[in-house]
Amino acid sequence: xxxxxxxxxxxxxxxxxxxxxxxxxxxxxxxxxxxxxxxxxxxxxxxxxxxxxxxxxxxxxxxxxxxxxxxxxxxxxxxxxxxxxxxxxxxxxxxxxxxxxxxxxxxxxxxxxxxxxxxxxxxxxxxxxxxxxxxxxxxxxxxxxxxxxxxxxxxxxxxxxxxxxxxxxxxxxxxxxxxxxxxxxxxx
Length: 188
Prior knowledge:
- The chain is an all-alpha fold.
- The chain is built from nine helices and no strands.
- The protein has helices at residues 3-9, 13-21, 25-46, 51-68, 78-108, 124-129, 133-144, 149-156, 160-179.
């Protein structure tokens, strides 16, 4: 049995990471296959459903993780550490997207916001995508990924109170979108 297969048999991300640091490509492939599906779903939701952007963010996340692997202290799980890197890369992608949209609006003399897309009450993913970036990020990290407000606050550089507030507003917006009522409480 080769070293990568032994690491998989022991089910240890740390063992695989040590092999990756030694240049073991099969170990990297196994670590990648183990963590990429969850990472992709996380960044896909954070980015509002843009698969092309999510694929780019996943690739950039793995590049950064590989570069920093030797400094990882194993105080958290590998998956949590990788998700934190992915979160930061996704947030930078959202900032770049926002700057591009602002530049496009300035260049075309855009007269107001785009019309809101109709939200199908049973389409949870569409409702999540319609949330503002901050609300969506906190909702996904808390309700989908299971992070506590203190962890979210640390990862996003906000207070735990801000995390709680954004989660409250995100859930309220989700209820409104899924029940067919607009934010003003009127039927959509």
